[in-house]
Write a structure and sequence with these properties.
The structure holds 3 protein chains of 3 kinds. By secondary structure, chain A is an all-alpha fold. Helices cover 80% and strands 0% of the residues of chain A. Chain B has a single domain (17-234), classed as MetI-like fold, CATH 1.10.3720. Helices cover 74% and strands 0% of the residues of chain B. The chains are: A mainly alpha, B mainly alpha, C alpha/beta. Chains in contact: A-B, B-C. At the A-B interface, helix 3 and helix 8 of A face helix 2, helix 3, helix 8, helix 9 and helix 10 of B.
Chain lengths: 233, 243, 244
């Protein structure tokens, strides 16, 4: 079996695979993480400190996103994005939105729900004494959040957020369903063109495995080092 | 908005001549639930074995279990499904490979096996965390009474651990249901696949996906309610509730 | 009944927790092990029924060697009862099931026989009628008495107690000690007890074993030990403990 494994097809298309496919995947991962964390933090803060009505809407959003399959959400935004574009730009007809843009929109909005849960847990894990001390000094609620609570929450939650990013990284493979040119998409193209499904899919699996393993061991080491210690109250 | 809404589309007959689109969506839902249940069963059985192995006193078992979990956790589900569906038949002797490819319910079986193994790693990790959270004195007390290792697991550690991890296990079951949608890429006609197919035939994109969304939310609600009931029945008086 | 000979135990090459421990407990004897924290008392106790391994020396219970690889440890443990500092009742089982579990699974008694034994023992420790309750519904003292009953249900030849009253509120200590005194005097049970309760020791113990830093520093009959301890460390310890 192994002697017919065509390493050559991997070598020949390696440049294409990495330059185009892996880059798409990594770019999507990085930008969606950024957007997801920002939006997720906003959602978490709104749920915990915002007016009740807004908080309930945020909660509804988070729970809805977490109840739906990512594949479905990918389809939703793939078809919805042009209409959103039309609404934003006040055009006459739906605005064609590129695959990357629609994917980025999808993943940012989807993962924000998951990041918001992480941030929410992080904020709630900060002892009440910290908030009390900050308020006693005269800081406004927004300042307390910005200068005391969030920095500590983020520091505590960094390992979990890293894990969530790794999950995001693996989730991006699902853009396959809208024929996106991510790592799996490109590999699939090569596989069908050259008739080498085995080599291509095994290669993709190996790349995902390698990157994920490295990233999660880094997260593990981070977790061992970064836990903030609060003096016993 | 240039989109033409047509909510009556659900009652139109689909190209197959016999079923309405609503029928097809419900059939898809049935496949979703069936796949999820079978995969979850597989995940529970395997996950329990691996989870127990992760806490065993025998180092080789622990290491093997750790690698099992790492392999299934670090490769995306979609890629795993492709490996099972496209790569495995090629790696087996040609006769076996051919038989696999021509199996009547190959998409369903592949989805069950692939999803089941993927989720088993997560079940194993939850179980490991659950077992490790049990105070070590419990294991000591069971051992001191003369219970053998397997008896200790069966009568003390596992009953406690499963009750502890019931909430995260519920989440994992819900994840299993959601993950069935990934199998549309290998031809399983589950709910999302049916919605997509309906969209391709009728161009009523948002009606199709709204229906799918509503159905997924409904299933979610049912499972969460059912699990609340189960948790209430199984609670150990005063043990976890006090946390 | 219990023979401990020259036992050495290391957690790692630089940490030796038991140093050349030698003592014995005759049938029907009550031996109390006392000493400051970290002296290795609990560790030594756990070596007797094989819960903790040890590297050198030997321990024999009723003639069976604990550290022999051929020994059937579960069977040995079934014959030696152990009571833990934190009771360790199984929270998901009723009191009665706690008592019946090992009887049925290890001794292979029938359910009826197990229930009969459980009921009898619960009555003995003053908790008749508590069979259907869960451990969390019981006070600490009650839980510990159930734990003693659970160990007795196995018809042990000897009982090990690891600081049985240290985790109890003061008002519950007496009810547990009363059960232990009864066990010693009326049943003539062979008992090895790690405890700080010197009142109990004075009343019931035949011999006192004093440990410090992993070594058995002094062993004497109860009377001798309390009247005139020979070693300086024992004297210091007693003066601190008995001060209040």
């Amino acid at each position: 079996m192994l002697d017919s494994f065509d390493f050559d097809v991997i070598r020949r298309s390696l440049g294409h695979l990495l330059r185009d496919g892996l880059t798409f995947t990594l770019k999507l991962t990085a930008l969606a993480t950024l957007g997801g964390v920002v939006l997720g933090t906003l959602l978490a803060v709104l749920r915990l400190r915002g007016p009740a009505f807004i908080g309930r809407i945020a909660a509804l959003y988070v729970n809805a996103m977490r109840s739906l399959p990512l594949v479905l959400v990918i389809f939703w935004f793939f078809f919805l994005a042009p209409y959103i574009g039309q609404w934003i730009v006040h055009a006459e007809r739906p605005v064609p939105v590129g695959i990357f843009a629609s994917s980025l929109l999808t993943f940012t909005l989807f993962e924000a729900a998951y990041f918001s849960e992480v941030v929410r847990a992080g904020i709630q894990s900060i002892p009440q004494g910290q908030v009390a001390a900050a308020e006693a000094v005269g800081l406004s609620p927004a300042q307390v959040m910005r200068y005391v609570v969030l920095p500590q929450a983020f520091r505590n939650m960094l390992p979990i957020m890293l894990t969530q990013t790794i999950v995001l990284f693996q989730d991006t493979s699902l853009v396959y369903v809208i024929s996106a040119p991510d790592l799996l998409g490109v590999a699939s193209q090569v596989a069908h063109r050259d008739g080498r499904l085995v080599e291509m899919y095994v290669f993709v699996a190996a790349v995902y495995f390698g990157i994920s393993l490295l990233a999660s061991s880094a997260a593990g080491r981070l977790q061992a080092r970064s836990a903030l210690v609060h003096p016993p109250t | 908005m240039n989109y033409h809404w047509n909510w009556h589309i659900f009652w139109d007959v689909s190209p197959d001549g016999a079923n309405s689109y609503l029928d097809l969506l419900l059939q898809g839902l049935l496949w979703t639930v069936a796949t999820a249940l079978c995969a979850w069963l597989l995940a529970l059985v395997l996950g329990t074995c691996v989870g127990v192995a992760r806490t065993a006193r025998v180092a080789p078992a622990r290491r093997l279990a750790k690698w099992y979990v790492e392999v299934f956790r670090n490769v995306p589900l979609l890629v795993q499904l492709f490996l099972w569906y496209f790569v495995l038949p090629e790696l087996l002797p040609p006769a076996v490979g051919l038989w696999l490819k021509q199996l009547h319910y190959s998409s369903f079986l592949t989805a069950v096996v692939g999803l089941g193994l993927f989720m088993s790693a997560r079940v194993a990790e939850q179980l490991r965390a659950g077992i490790e959270s049990i105070p070590p004195g419990q294991r000591a007390a069971a051992t001191a009474l003369g219970l053998a290792g397997s008896q200790t697991y069966r009568h003390v550690l596992l009953p406690l651990a499963f009750r502890i991890i019931l909430p995260p296990l519920t989440s994992e079951f819900l994840n299993t249901i959601k993950n069935t949608s990934t199998a549309l890429t290998i031809g399983l006609l589950e709910l999302t696949a049916q919605a997509r197919s309906m969209q391709e035939f009728t161009f009523q994109v948002f009606e199709a996906f709204t229906a799918a969304t509503v159905l997924y939310l409904a299933v979610n609600l049912c499972v969460v309610s059912a699990m609340h009931y189960v948790e209430a029945r199984l609670v150990i008086p005063g043990f976890i509730v006090r946390k | 009944m219990i023979e401990i000979q020259h036992v050495d135990k290391w957690y790692n090459p630089s940490l030796q927790v038991l140093k050349d421990c030698t003592t014995s407990v005759a049938k029907g004897e009550v031996v109390v092990i006392c000493g400051p924290s970290g002296s290795g008392k609990s560790t030594l106790l756990k070596c007797v029924n094989g819960l903790e391994p040890f590297q050198r020396g030997s321990i024999a219970v009723d003639g069976t060697l604990v550290n022999d690889r051929k020994t059937d440890l579960p069977r040995l443990r079934a014959r030696v009862g152990m009571v833990f500092q934190h009771f360790e009742l199984f929270p998901h089982l009723t009191v009665q099931d706690n008592l019946c579990l090992a009887q049925q699974k290890v001794l292979r008694r029938s359910r009826d026989a197990a229930v009969e034994t459980s009921t009898r023992l619960l009555g003995r420790v003053g908790l008749g009628g508590y069979g259907e309750k869960f451990p969390s519904e019981l006070s600490g003292g009650q839980q510990q008495r159930v734990a003693i009953a659970r160990a007795l249900a196995m018809n042990p030849v000897a009982m090990l107690f690891d600081e049985p009253t240290s985790a109890l509120d003061p008002e519950m200590i007496k009810e547990v000690l009363d059960v232990m005194v009864q066990l010693a005097n009326e049943d003539g049970m062979t008992m090895l007890v790690v405890t700080h309760e010197m009142g109990f020791a004075r009343q019931v113990a035949d011999r006192i074993v004093f440990m410090d830093q992993g070594q058995i520093v002094e062993q004497a009959s109860s009377g001798e030990f309390f009247a005139s301890p020979r070693s300086q460390r024992a004297q210091e310890f007693l003066s601190k403990i008995l001060a209040h």
